[in-house]
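JOB MANIFEST
job_type = single_chain_structure
chain_count = 1
residues = 57
[input]
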Amino acid sequence: MKTLLKYLLIIAEVFFFLGVLPVIYPPSALVIYPILTILGCYLGWTASKNSCNEGDD
């Protein structure tokens, strides 16, 4: 039960930082969205790099 509450708290924090905080304090979007873009590109790059290691050489 504690892990479920922990994951729900993480999801609530993500929704807060993506949706609510830029509405309350718009300049925060200038920090949050580029960081998320860089993180998304990095995670996509590592996922594609790891998936192509299965003898594609």
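[summary]
Residues 1-40 form one domain.
Residues 2-24 form the longest helix (23 residues).
exit_status = 0
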